[in-house]
Amino acid sequence: MINKKIKYILISGLLAVIIFPAMTLADNAALDKLGEVGTKNGPYATVAGENSISGIVGAVISGALALIGMIFLVLMLYAGYHWMTARGEEEKVEKAKDTITRAIIGLIIVVGAYAIWAFIFYQLIL
User: 19: domain range?
Assistant: First the structure.
């Protein structure tokens, strides 16, 4: 078995190899573009205003997707908690698996519906 001290050293070394190069090679050129965001000249210029119908619909859809994502996360945490505290009781484990399965299926349906809607919407506009 690996000693705890050696394990901590290996994990610290792995994190250093992963994190430090990203920190030292960071490019500040992207930060210069932040001032242009939202302007007519910027790379991420808005097509429609915030008060237009498309802006309002986009905000509603974005909020709904965020809410659905939070519900999915809560369901996964709930099912995981019940699975971990089942203590071998098959009925509780099956209920937790069923909850996880249904949450994933619901998320797939919602994301699929959004993808179909977005594809059709962009094909109609463009």
Answer: 1-45
The residue behind tokens 């962009």 is 122
Between CA 99 and CA 103 the distance in angstroms is: 6
- Give the tens place of pLDDT for each residue, 41-62: 544 455 555 677 777 877 888 8
Which 8-state DSSP code applies to residue 74? H
Residues of the chain falling short of pLDDT 50: 42-44
Check whether residue 60 and residue 119 sit in a common domain. yes
- Please check whether residues 24 and 80 belong to one and the same domain: no
CA separation for the pair 119, 112 (Å, rounded): 10
Residue 97: half-sphere exposure toward Cβ, Cα within 13 Å = 6
Indicate if 60 and 40 belong to the same structural domain. no
Which conformational region is residue 17 in: left (phi greater than 0), alpha (psi within -120 to 50 degrees), or beta?
Answer: alpha
What integer pLDDT is reported at residue 44 of this predicted model? 47
**Whether residues 86 and 31 fall in one domain:** no
